[in-house]
Amino acid sequence: MRKQVAPREGLTLPSLLTRVALALLAASTPGPLAAQALLPDTVVSPPTGPRIVMLAEPGSPLVALRLAVPLPPVRSGVDAGLMLRDLGLERMRTLATTVGARVAAARTPWGLAYTVEGAATDFDYLAAMLRAAVAEPAVGGPAFRAARDDLLERQARSAETASGKLEAALRGKLDPSGSDNAVGVPGASAVWDLWRSTHRASGMTLVVASPLPPAVVLAATRGFGVVDSTARAPVTSSAPAPRPPAPRVNVLRRGYGAAWQGGATGDPRAAVAAVLVADALRRAAEPEGYEAGVALLEFRDRWALMVTGASYADKASAVRRAVDQALSATRESLRPGSVAAAVARVRQDLLLRSRTPSGLVTTVGWAMEAAGDPTAAATRLEALSHMDAAAVDDFLAAMIARGPVNAQVQP
After folding, report:
1. Mean pLDDT lowest for which of 148-157, 320-329, 348-357?
2. Phi, psi angles (nearest 5°) of residue 305
């Protein structure tokens, strides 16, 4: 996953610099010491509410909450979770304008995640925003139709680009039924049925970064999701929206890509390997003058490493060769110093992304979804401090042995 961290509104320059300095200091400290920043202080599992993972932020004027809702694997090729995400995000945006909060919603490999960040004095209101995000979706009105049309438009735009089509093809070969491969949107009844069957508070997980005591957090986080067990779906059309015709991809250059499955999602070697492969690929691409890139793809139970390149016809064979040999070339160039530098970059990126309340709950929550353990983010960070060239070499060798899937886009 790719993330960017931007300065938050309302955060003063001195406090921002302090957070950055602390994150950089942590990145250079031993694994166990740095990992403490990602360890929860309290984990509570109320009988009628979401599991709550609390990360203390003493003295912070800001709080962040991330609510994760697990969803079953996509089977039909049309993902109702995408509609639930967009409907919930729009409700959050409407409420956020009142207090200037920042909101986000994501379709993760395991379900849905809603995040809100704002002033600690508005904690009750921020919790209410999450409650609205996972409330019963209005599937029969104009908001549903607007969200449906917007989703179809975004899918069409992605399919019109060579990079989007190439990544979709590789994802489809790695995980044919995955949500990332969904095309079109489901009918209203399917969206409501998914909400009804999955949005139970007892199955949700709430990660909170705040200066507030646990009692205050518990009092504000009640009534999430399905409340009335006798609720029935509204009478609406159950037919899915028609899928738009597949657009013609207008490209001038040839695109080629390969993806290798990389083992369990909690394995921190994947991120280090991605950095090293990207460095090796850049060394191969720069003299030849073509574009190439590396990305980590995360699925429900495993990583995948995707390598892509694009060029005009005269460089097409060089692109294919570089992409196909990216992992073996990286193995040949492995040195203790280069691996140590890559590990430091991954650790620094992880800690810098966690320097804000919203970044912290996202890092902890994402790792927890993958591993089912509130301490997974800290464990992953600590494991980086013990990684060496032999461990990365073993990881790359295993991916090569499994073999890649390939895809291409022609002009």
Report:
1. 148-157
2. -105, 120
